[in-house]
Structure formats: structure tokens, C-alpha cells
Design goal:
The protein is an alpha+beta fold. Helices cover about 35% and strands about 25% of the residues. It has six helices and eight strands, in the order H-E-E-H-E-H-E-E-E-H-E-E-H-H. A six-stranded antiparallel beta sheet has the order 2-1-6-5-4-3. Strands 7-8 form a two-stranded antiparallel ribbon. The chain starts with a helix and ends in an 8-residue tail after the last helix.
Length: about 200
């Protein structure tokens, strides 16, 4: 009996140490058991989501978390990364998801999730991380839009214009340059001039 009590105390101490480590991570952490019941989340998860974490009693309640697809459709409970990991046992890596906050704003969040297996290989838990990547993704989209706009301007000018990368491969050929070179612009991209 004393040995069992000592083992139980050690297991509880190990759980407390793990919770202390998870609570100090700079990314949100969410741990669910095999039924999808939330068993732990850290304070960073609330910061990422912008509201207290709802303590789901199972996968069927995940719709309350507020994830939204890129086209604005809410995630179905079974579509959440943790739910998919619990169902398939396959990890999910850096899935970009929009989360609707209580104030109505949306944030882009990168979710990764992985199974924690028992000794027989069954999925016992799923652990997920969440990182707010809204500014990074917004900046990337803005840069893509700016590049597209610049390429339209360069394509519209009446002078020949080309750009090259560091290895002298064509990265852009406007219509006038293609006309002067006697080639289709797309066929030149990625090629070097002296191989033509």
C-alpha cells in the first residue's frame, strides 16, 4: 500500500511539473483525451484565442471554439485539428485557421496537433499548439498583392523590361521584352540568357 501511495504521489508530482512547463510556453497548448475532453490548456492559448478557453466535454462541442475556414464557413466540430488527430492518429502541421474572437475580430492562427499514444499504439491524447500568425500572414498577403500590382505595371509599360535572380535566371519578362527576344515570356522564366 505504501508503495502504491508513493507511486501515486510521484505520478501527481510529474503531472504538476508537466503542467508547469506547458503553462510557461509562449504558444498556446491544448491537451484533449481520447474522447476530445479538454484536460489541459495553458494561459497562452487564451491569449491566442482572445477569450477564455471553453472546457469542451468532447469533440461534439468543438464548434464553440470559433474556428472559421478561409471562406468564412465555421469549422464543423469534427474538422478541428485535434478532432482529426483523435480520429485518424495522423498529425496536423501548421494549419492556418481563422478564429473569431468575442469582439468580432478575426485572427489567423497556425495550429499543429499530434497524437500521444498508449503502449498498444492507440491514441490516448491529442496535444495541439496554437500560434497567432495574423501579422505575419497579413504582411505576406500584402507583399503578394504589391508584387502582383508591380508586375501589372511592368507588363503595361511600352519598353522591354526583364528581371533576374542572383543566378541570372529570368524572373520576369514583360510583353515587349518577349517580343524583342522572339519568345513567349513564360518559356523564358527560370532560364539564363546565355542558354537561349
Amino acid at each position: 500500500l505504501a508503495r502504491a501511495e508513493a507511486a501515486a504521489r510521484e505520478a501527481e508530482a510529474a503531472r504538476e511539473r508537466l503542467a508547469a512547463v506547458l503553462d510557461r510556453l509562449p504558444v498556446g497548448v491544448f491537451v484533449a483525451d481520447a474522447r476530445g475532453v479538454l484536460v489541459h490548456h495553458n494561459p497562452a492559448m487564451e491569449a491566442v484565442l482572445g477569450h477564455p478557453v471553453f472546457r469542451a466535454g468532447g469533440v461534439e462541442e468543438y464548434g464553440r471554439y470559433g474556428a472559421v475556414h478561409g471562406d468564412g464557413r465555421p469549422y464543423a466540430p469534427e474538422d478541428y485539428p485535434v478532432a482529426r488527430v483523435l480520429r485518424t492518429g495522423e498529425p496536423v502541421t501548421q494549419e492556418l485557421t481563422r478564429y473569431r474572437r468575442r469582439d468580432g475580430s478575426e485572427r489567423i492562427v497556425a495550429i499543429s496537433a499530434a497524437p500521444v499514444r498508449d503502449a498498444d499504439g492507440g491514441v490516448q491524447y491529442a496535444v495541439a499548439t496554437a500560434e497567432d500568425v495574423h501579422e505575419r500572414e497579413s504582411a505576406r498577403h500584402a507583399a503578394e498583392r504589391a508584387e502582383t500590382q508591380l508586375m501589372r505595371v511592368l507588363d503595361a509599360i511600352g519598353e522591354a523590361f526583364v528581371t533576374f535572380d542572383a543566378e541570372w535566371r529570368y524572373t520576369h519578362v514583360n510583353w515587349k521584352a518577349a517580343e524583342l527576344l522572339g519568345r513567349d515570356a513564360a518559356s523564358l522564366l527560370g532560364r539564363v540568357p546565355w542558354e537561349e
